[in-house]
Amino acid sequence: MQQTEKGTALTIAILTVSDTRTEETDTSGQYLAEVVGAAGHRLWEKKIVPDDIYQLRAQVSQWIAEQGVQVILTTGGTGFSGRDSTPEALAPLFDKQVEGFGELFRAISFEEIGSSTIQSRALAGIANNTLICCMPGSTGACRTAWENILREQLDSRHRPCNFVAHLKGRAQ
Predict the structure, then answer these.
(1) Closest CA to 47 of 34, 65, 60, 64
(2) Average pLDDT over residues 126-139
(3) Is 90 left (phi over 0), alpha (psi -120 to 50) or beta?
(4) What confidence category does residue 83 fall into, taking pLDDT thresholds of 50, 70 and 90?
(5) Which of 35, 130, 131, 137 could form an S-S bond across to 76 if both were Cys, CB 3.0 to 4.6 Å?
(6) 44 in helix, strand or coil?
């Protein structure tokens, strides 16, 4: 893995889950791509897929199998509407669940949006030494997750621990 003045540069894929967003209207995916780059990481690919269990699973499975992808950030599909299916699509792919991600996201989000945070099914896991973090579709939710959780946990310099040591390209 490449070391920079900002720590270890990771390779990150971003997936927006939406039946309606386009590249022009995908503010959440655009936000994530910007902060990933600003933190010194490399963007592998950014895609938009419909909220469909099998299309989600297929895309994320492809990235999990790809030796170059170390982190997958998804935005959207974590609520309770009829088409929201990100947790059902991706949780079965996890080798290990990161229970604390959803718990911490909802605790932080409570300070911002109150009890409405209970309708977030944010989750994370590790599959084939790839960290997968699933966030709600709003840009505000992505900002909350990035600024309060992901920025530090994807920084090799963060102590006492971070996820970098558990990712592809590191001694396992």
Answers:
(1) 60
(2) 97
(3) alpha
(4) confident
(5) 137
(6) strand
The residue type at 147:
E
Which band of pLDDT confidence, cut at 50, 70 and 90, is reported for residue 81? confident
Q: Which pTM does this prediction carry?
A: 0.95
Please check whether residue 18 is in contact with residue 83, taking contact to mean a CB–CB distance below 8 angstroms: no
Token representation of residue 99: 């229970």
Q: Residue 8 and residue 39: Cα distance in Å, rounded? A: 10
Residue type, 81: S
**Assigned CATH for 2-152:** 3.40.980.10
Q: Which residue has the tokens 């792919």?
A: 93
Place of tokens 């297929």: 58
Residue 28 identity:
S
Tokens 């938009």 label which residue? 48
Domain ranges of the chain: 2-152
